[in-house]
UniProtKB/TrEMBL annotation:
Keyword Transferase on entry: yes
Molecular function GO labels: nucleotidyltransferase activity
Nucleotidyl transferase domain residues: 1-126
Annotated Pfam families: NTP_transferase (PF00483)
Keyword annotations: Nucleotidyltransferase, Transferase
CDD domains: NTP_transferase_like_1
Species name: Halorhodospira halochloris
UniProt name for this protein: Glucose-1-phosphate thymidylyltransferase
Keyword hit for Transmembrane: no
Length: 215
């Protein structure tokens, strides 16, 4: 699943006319690169959730044929459901098996094939070095296990392998994914992987410019 429903408030005015996943970095829209690399990793079907300017994403991606994948859309209202609620809404499309997740507004050279197809825990997260905008990090990683605190904190890359049971007890609505991951980590149910390679969160015009320069 590619998360692509966000409004991109911090990217305005650019996102007033263009949804973040269609912003070009390295001469290619972010979502195009994701689809290309997911296909290389063996993915055949992709769920994309849409809300703000979602019609542009659907027009560009269509059914996924140019990338050799089948794309199905989970459409949300213009306000979007945040990450946790958006994934829960898409659960009938995702099914009851584990799935991979990637944020639509990141650029990375992480090889998706490194993600487990069937994680032993309810979540497996990819963590990266803390960028300037998230100096305190999100999670700690020790011996392949993810914790909510530790000597060296890292940042969640927005890339994960997840099981539907992570949403057990949650009802449809508007809520973020982060609290679910923290709760699972506190229960010892999250594994992780550190990626030292390139990773950019395209969250503001300044970060977009930095990513373009670096890439």
């Amino acid at each position: 699943m590619i998360l692509a429903a966000g409004r991109g408030e911090r990217m305005r005015p650019l996102t007033d006319l263009t949804p973040k996943p269609l912003i070009e970095v390295g001469g290619q829209p972010l979502i195009s690169r994701h689809l290309e690399r997911l296909k290389q990793a063996g993915v055949d079907e992709v769920i994309i959730n849409t809300a703000w300017l979602g019609e542009q994403i659907e027009e560009y991606v269509s059914d996924g044929h140019p990338w050799g994948v089948k794309v199905v859309y989970s459409r949300e209202a213009k306000g979007a459901l945040e990450t946790g609620g958006g994934i829960l809404k898409a659960m009938p499309l995702l099914g009851n098996q584990p799935f991979w997740l990637v944020n639509g507004d990141i650029w990375t050279d992480f090889p998706f094939a490194r993600l487990p197809e069937r994680p032993s825990d309810c979540a497996h997260l990819v963590l990266v070095d803390n960028p300037p905008h998230n100096e305190k990090g999100d999670f700690a990683l020790a011996n392949g296990r993810v914790h909510t605190s530790g000597a060296q904190m890292l940042t969640f890359a927005g890339i994960a392998a997840l099981k539907p049971n992570l949403w057990s007890g949650y009802r449809p609505g508007n809520f973020p994914l982060a609290p679910l991951l923290r709760r699972a980590a506190e229960l010892g149910r999250v594994s992780g992987d550190y990626w030292p390679g390139a990773w950019h969160d395209i969250g503001t015009p300044e970060r977009l410019q930095a990513a373009r320069q670096a890439i």
